[in-house]
Amino acid sequence: MLKTPAIVLNVKTYTEATGINAVDLARLMEKISKENDVGMAIAVQACDITRCVQEVDLPVYAQHIDPIKPGSSTGWTLPEAVKSAGAVGTLINHSEHRLILADIDICIIRTQELGLDSLVCTNNVATSKAVATFSPSMIAVEPPELIGGDISVTTADPGIVSTTVKAVQTVNKTVKILCGAGVKNGNDVVKAIELGPNWLQLASRVVKAKNKEAVLRDLISGI
Amino acid sequence: MLKTPAIVLNVKTYTEATGINAVDLARLMEKISKENDVGMAIAVQACDITRCVQEVDLPVYAQHIDPIKPGSSTGWTLPEAVKSAGAVGTLINHSEHRLILADIDICIIRTQELGLDSLVCTNNVATSKAVATFSPSMIAVEPPELIGGDISVTTADPGIVSTTVKAVQTVNKTVKILCGAGVKNGNDVVKAIELGPNWLQLASRVVKAKNKEAVLRDLISGI
Amino acid sequence: MLKTPAIVLNVKTYTEATGINAVDLARLMEKISKENDVGMAIAVQACDITRCVQEVDLPVYAQHIDPIKPGSSTGWTLPEAVKSAGAVGTLINHSEHRLILADIDICIIRTQELGLDSLVCTNNVATSKAVATFSPSMIAVEPPELIGGDISVTTADPGIVSTTVKAVQTVNKTVKILCGAGVKNGNDVVKAIELGPNWLQLASRVVKAKNKEAVLRDLISGI
Amino acid sequence: MLKTPAIVLNVKTYTEATGINAVDLARLMEKISKENDVGMAIAVQACDITRCVQEVDLPVYAQHIDPIKPGSSTGWTLPEAVKSAGAVGTLINHSEHRLILADIDICIIRTQELGLDSLVCTNNVATSKAVATFSPSMIAVEPPELIGGDISVTTADPGIVSTTVKAVQTVNKTVKILCGAGVKNGNDVVKAIELGPNWLQLASRVVKAKNKEAVLRDLISGI
């Protein structure tokens, strides 16, 4: 597990973070992470895991795994392949890649078998609590209305973070909560951490920034 | 495009072809391909494309692409990422990873935009003809009852190959037909090529063999 | 088959056409259809087929069937059940309910086995041509950008209708083409029919109208 | 809610329970239910709800609802339509019709809004506990290896029922547990009820029996 507070950056399938661009962004994060002693990880496309692991000293996550074992699953993402490529964890059930309930259970078990961190994304308090019963490493609550938008979760719906923290603790006291959408700047980061989470998940804000370094430095400025 | 007749080996998500094992198998294919001057390509998991391309001089295909453009598609397979990792083509609509009709259309267009070969898998004569109207590079017809089994397509249902060749030609004369299931040995390869296709798609027979080299050499013995 | 030109009204899952409202709308269409000697059919939710068939003398279509045979398919739509409830046809592959390619093939075969009309929805010229190779009864081409909007297909993209008609005829001369989106008023109907189709598919324009009767009468005014 | 112990019969899409056959089976259940004062309900295909409700005095369930509100969802199952047809409840997340986690949450909320019973199917102890956090009316635990087979759950894996009951109660004390697979005869029913559940879910055993009445009478013989 990363030193917390920590930031997980999901680069999705943006051009700005595909192929060599993913490596460049990971290298930038490595530099800022080390200079500031702040935990960071990058979640890249399956195709890009190997290169990021080879060239950068930063924890790399997969963006997804499928609930499969080795065999006849052409084109799906085998947890063993993600591990073999050098990832240390994976997102599961991201809002852009939802899974059926039974498969979330299987994916978390598969990460436990392989020693991968599991970061399960959820959309509200109720689904966060349900997922917590499976004991993943982390849960990132991301209200759909805040994903990719300009509104800060800590402004729009501060209750969702603290309510999620409380609801999750009624069924599982060890799972870590991430604030997973609507974190826009260093001020949001500080507020989010006050509400309970000590991890944050970010995406488009950093990836699409002209000056990625400035945005990253701003985000961690209050930690 | 590869020199034909050619063999495309889809290694699925077998342990025997994940991570370093994928690289080893690709290296073996490279050797046999060069020694015998027979066209070969390997279709590996997304996580393994980079390493195979880095270490082996053999055309690498992806096993799947998703019908997406760069952006918010966490965990899906971006055609640009596959290209960037060094793949020269991709399977589309494999029997273990079917796509809706409109998405097959989009995937083929995306491969054309990026200069990737498109190898679309189909399950019978009717769907092969339908796909041919989209003008992919290749169509691999794989009757579901023959996939992964012990029966040769050229024994069980020789008509499907020649009928598919004829049906496809009524709508598209340039698309190449692959014999995509039930090819078990060198004799099957010879018969399949007589029936029209000059490409073959293979999977478990090679990947799960104790002596992969012997199986590969047998397969190309009659070419 | 209906007397043409004909109008197929897909009522989707609008409140205005659920339960008793579906029956009322079917009854209104029956009246206008008979008074004006214009062919009409209504595509209702599976739950509503029985009541519409029992109470109204108008051809009823299902909005969807699944590619299944009787057996273990809890909660899916069995073609036999649709037939048994009294439907005379079904939409297939609607833009809100897409199917994988192999399943479109199976659904069309199942309708042929049961004597149901098959109306397959497509999104562009290329997919219309692909579907035509399966010989469904009808194809409704519906460019996604026109569905549910305020723009008439005959204004926005008149070429798509005539181009689709021509492309489909290169592979299948018997399938009927429907103009499936962007038909807003009687003028659009007249123009659409000039472009080739003699069937039209409609949805929200009628269902959500305050005065459904006026909208229906306007639509057929030019026929 | 039904008088318990009660039996919910899911007739799937079997020919023996499609159309008029569904009505006949419901009528048989009505007779046996009343004669023996045992709670019973039938879960039929969407197309068959209306007729069963019209002709038989037995609680009717839908086999599935989709996580939608009225609008543009062609061919999907609107909860309001199920309610309007006369169903009093619905299965959710059946093993043959799985839903993503967020959609299970939505479906349960939709049944609560409409006053429908919600019977959520799960595959093991862990997913049962997760679902219990959503407070559905009932959870039917059905280990996949027992569905449709010849083995009794109470013989094969008696622990799963009592363990599920206990696990669910740690997060929700009001949800009812159903024994949902592997109940074959009256003896199984008695044992299952001893293990905690007071509802049972059945399918192929009854539907495919030559003498459905004899099987039904045997099942309730020990209650």
What topology does this entry show?
The structure is a homotetramer of 223-residue chains.
Chain A: E1 6-10, H1 20-36, E2 39-44, H2 49-55, E3 60-62, H3 79-85, E4 89-92, H4 101-114, E5 117-122, H5 125-132, E6 138-141, H6 153-156, H7 158-171, E7 176-179, H8 186-194, E8 199-202, H9 204-207, H10 212-219
Parallel strand pairs in A: 1-2, 1-8, 2-3, 3-4, 4-5, 5-6, 6-7, 7-8
Helix pairs in contact in A: 1-10, 5-7
Tell me about this structure.
The first copy, chain A, is of the alpha/beta class and 223 residues long. Chain A is built from 10 helices and 8 strands. In chain A, helix 5 runs parallel beside helix 7. Chain A is globular and about 45 Å long. Chains in contact: A-B, A-D, B-C, C-D. At the B-C interface, helix 4 and helix 5 of B face helix 4 and helix 5 of C.
Provide a brief overview of the structure:
4 copies of one chain form a homotetramer. Chain A has helices at 20-36, 49-55, 79-85, 101-114, 125-132, 153-156, 158-171, 186-194, 204-207, 212-219; strands spanning 6-10, 39-44, 60-62, 89-92, 117-122, 138-141, 176-179, 199-202.
What features would you highlight for this structure?
alpha/beta; 223 residues; 8 strands; homotetramer; 8-stranded parallel beta barrel; globular
Percentage of residues assigned to helices of chain A: 40-55%
Strand order within the widest beta sheet of chain A: 1-2-3-4-5-6-7-8
What quaternary form is this? homotetramer
* Largest beta-sheet details of chain A: 8 strands, parallel, barrel
Measured on Cα atoms, how large is the radius of gyration of chain A? 16 Å
N to C succession of SSEs of chain A: EHEHEHEHEHEHHEHEHH
Overall, the morphology of chain A is globular
Uncertain residue segments of chain A = none
Strand content of chain A: 15-25%
Structural class of chain A: alpha/beta
